[in-house]
Amino acid sequence: MTSIASSGPKRVTTKVIAGMKDSKTPLACLTAYDFLTARLLDQAGVDLLLVGDSLGMVFQGHETTIPVTLDEMIYHAKAVVRGVTRAMIIVDMPFMSYQANDEEGFRNAGRVMKETGAGGVKFEGGERVAHLVEMTVRAGIPVMGHLGLTPQSIHQYGGYTPRGTTPDEAKQMLRDAKTLEDAGAFAVVLEKVPASLAAKITKSIRIPTIGIGAGAGCDGQILVVSDMLGLYEDFQPRFVRRYAQLADEIRGGVGRYVDDVRKRAFPGKKESY
User: Fold this and answer.
1) Alpha carbon distance 124, 270 (integer Å)
2) Prediction pTM value
3) Which residues are catalytic, by number?
4) Are residues 219 and 142 located together in one domain of the fold?
5) Domain limits at 233?
């Protein structure tokens, strides 16, 4: 029997991502929360999609990521996975799904993998989650780290201010990045970190760094899709570049629809049976 090689796009894996750092090919990453958006982002060539707990703010309307539950993350991740054929899909482990103890975090990470079909999970923190990262990786689950501004600790920090701005914080972040690498993480997000520190971390570890508000010296970049497409208008962080203004497009399109309905201009003969 002759085997027929798949003509579809090559799936992005941890091996592919490691190779992109080696070849100095920047990683293009975005968040995704639903099937249709994930499919469009995948078709556009995004390398990695994060099902982020940022959905608590841009999808559910909360002020922080704290209220998001594990069940909600799994629900959204399932939808994203169904829309993707190429990009790697990573799922945020939400607040209190792993902070109580490593065993609970380990079981919850396994549940995410079993129920969603995603490619890995993301934990916030450095040295404090190192043992959990090691346990999870040893079980065959790819883990992405997250350093700098960690939104699940926002009440501890007292705001969305940059991290790593003092010598002590910078030294700790360098240690945390190395610790995550040693624990087996395949990549690490650096959020709202001074560009010079992010570049130093990027050069000091073998695994890729993915920046959000951390300058161009990282191995890749990630943004919240609702921010970069101009859908979320309540707040625009300094690090966001808006590549579209879809909120205006949607309001305009819906406004024209409402106007046509009011004037009985829709439906017309072509839209009627």
Assistant:
1) 53
2) 0.93
3) 191
4) yes
5) 14-242
